Amino acid sequence: MRVLAPYLALYKRHKWLLSLGIILAIVTLLASIGLITLSGWFLSASAVAGFAGAYSFNYMLPAAGVRGAAITRTAGRYFERLVSHDATFRVLQHLRVFTFSKLLPLSPAGLARFRQGELLNRIVADVDTLDHLYLRVISPLISALVVILVVTFGLSFLDVTLALTLGGIMLLTLVALPPLFYRAGKPTGESLTRLRGEYRQQLTSWLHGQAELTIFGASTRYREQMEQTEMNWHDAQRRQSELTALSQALMLLMGATAVIVMLWMASGGVGSNMQPGPLIALFVFCALAAFEALAPVTAAFQHLGQVIASASRITELTTQQPEVTFPSASAAPPQHVSLILKDIGFSYPQQTQPALDNISLHINAGEHVAILGRTGCGKSTLLQLLTRAWDPQRGEVLLNQQPLSSFDEMTLRRSMSMVPQRVHLFSATLRDNLLLAAPHATDEALSAVLLRTGLDKLLEDGGLNSWLGEGGRQLSGGELRRLAIARALLHNAPLMLLDEPTEGLDATTEAQILDLLADVMRDKTVLMVTHRLRGLARFNQIIVMDNGQIIEQGNHAELLARQGRYYQFRQRL
Ligand code: ATP
Ligand code: MG
């Protein structure tokens, strides 16, 4: 239950709207009880008056009361739904934004252990489940309690014993049944939440991996596994429905018992009047109607298990401490960037082998550095540390003589342009895919950059509005690289981090792109990871890495003269 506390605190933001929802729920319930109680009494009193030949019976007032209660009930129900759902959706909206804003700084280090489908499930389905907390738990519970008090108090004017008996039975029901069904529903609620997550996760990976699964003939096996999860999920849903039915049956039983008790007690007289009269009908109908008000309460507690499971899954995400944090003070982005790496050591979580070890580097502003090395030797990791996707466990990175960690996020992002090894294409227009690197760029600037990177073909149909990625045009590996270069050019920062920018390009396009890069990089500091040995003579420094360490360092001529690893690389060409 304690896990719900932070979410209950969220409700404070809309406390007036939420309270109004509860008040409207109470008014509706009372109007509903009033309507049935009054009509029950009115019909029997009219019949009795007819039999007795008492023609002075005032039927105007109760008839107006019945109509008033009917109208109040209808209008109350409408506005109660409107207000309470509006308030709940506001809370959910806030909760979703809150959860997402907590997720962002965790990326990528803190999110690596969650699968994508799992994250999606938590931010969508688990947040949605929390709407039960107010609509199905808090509101019905408070309303039921108030209704019991008002009904007992109201009836006590006619007969204290009868009123207390009915109130007692209702209170007993309210105290006994919900905890019983909470306990009974908890395991089912938890497995419902877990199975829903599992199913969604399996479905997303099945959809993503369609091509591979089909090619290797594994699709059926995956499908069967998914169907098994679906069956288990259905089983859990069935168990929950059975519990709901049982709770309703028990509630009916309690209600019917209350009606019989009222009938039996009231037939012995109501208040000071010892003769059976129309007031018997009043008590009987009141008992019937009041139990209707209690009906949602048991079901509510059954959902509590599900709500608590969802809340703890969200809390597990939001309470993680980001591994990388940024100071808030902002500074003007630098015009030129120099870098010093002092004895850097870094291992990925749960990895025994360090990805980088003892890396020391000195890069002056405007210098161009090429990083070479066998696959897996830590080249991309080195660039990742400079973007602060991760922080090194040992050593220090200085940017313009200041620790990298002293820069706020915005300044840091403005200081560097990155062409990552894995380029992400957003499911959005070509324009949006470029604008993320330079939000204020004009359409002309975007088209010019596409032309420079040889991507003008993309402008042919649909222009900048053409849709890319999922549901749109997919790009080839080489086009994707060039899109990343276009983004880096638009961002136009003084430090350029290029991770194999010409991978997947044919020789002619590679030469064009290298010329283009040489042109734009002229007054920038550049770190370029590459497996290609063409054009390296232009670089001020060449670094050869192996096993997370720098094994050779110098310019093209020096390294050739040394006849080490760089020399061997070239010999093999
Ligand atoms: P390539 O030339 O193939 O791109 P690279 O030199 O860029 O290789 P890195 O991507 O830096 O290599 O990886 C260095 C080592 O760290 C590899 O052994 C890799 O398996 C490991 N590694 C990379 N990313 C992660 C990660 N997120 N978690 C754990 N280990 C990782
Ligand atoms: Mg790499």
Tell me what the structure shows.
The protein has two domains: 2-318, ABC transporter type 1, transmembrane domain (ABC transporter transmembrane region fold, Up-down Bundle), CATH 1.20.1560; 339-425 and 475-572, Rossmann fold (3-Layer(aba) Sandwich), CATH 3.40.50. 61% of the residues lie in helices and 10% in strands. It has 17 helices and ten strands. The chain has helices spanning 5-11, 15-52, 60-103, 116-129, 131-156, 160-208, 210-215, 219-266, 279-318, 379-387, 409-415, 430-435, 443-452, 477-491, 507-520, 556-562, 565-571, and strands at residues 339-346, 356-363, 368-373, 394-399, 402-403, 416-419, 495-499, 525-529, 541-546, 549-554. The strands form two sheets. Strands 6-7-8-3-9-10 form a six-stranded mixed β-sheet, with helices on both faces. A four-stranded antiparallel β-sheet has the order 2-1-4-5, with helices on one face. The radius of gyration is 36 Å and the shape is elongated. The mean pLDDT is 89. Adenosine-5'-triphosphate is lined by residues 348, 351, 355, 373, 375-381, 421.
Describe the secondary structure blueprint for this structure.
Elements: H1 5-11, H2 15-52, H3 60-103, H4 116-129, H5 131-156, H6 160-208, H7 210-215, H8 219-266, H9 279-318, E1 339-346, E2 356-363, E3 368-373, H10 379-387, E4 394-399, E5 402-403, H11 409-415, E6 416-419, H12 430-435, H13 443-452, H14 477-491, E7 495-499, H15 507-520, E8 525-529, E9 541-546, E10 549-554, H16 556-562, H17 565-571
Parallel strand pairs: 3-8, 3-9, 6-7, 7-8
Antiparallel strand pairs: 1-2, 1-4, 4-5, 9-10
Helix pairs in contact: 2-3, 2-5, 2-9, 3-4, 4-6, 4-9, 5-6, 5-9, 6-8, 6-9, 8-9, 13-14
Bound molecules: adenosine-5'-triphosphate and magnesium ion (MG).
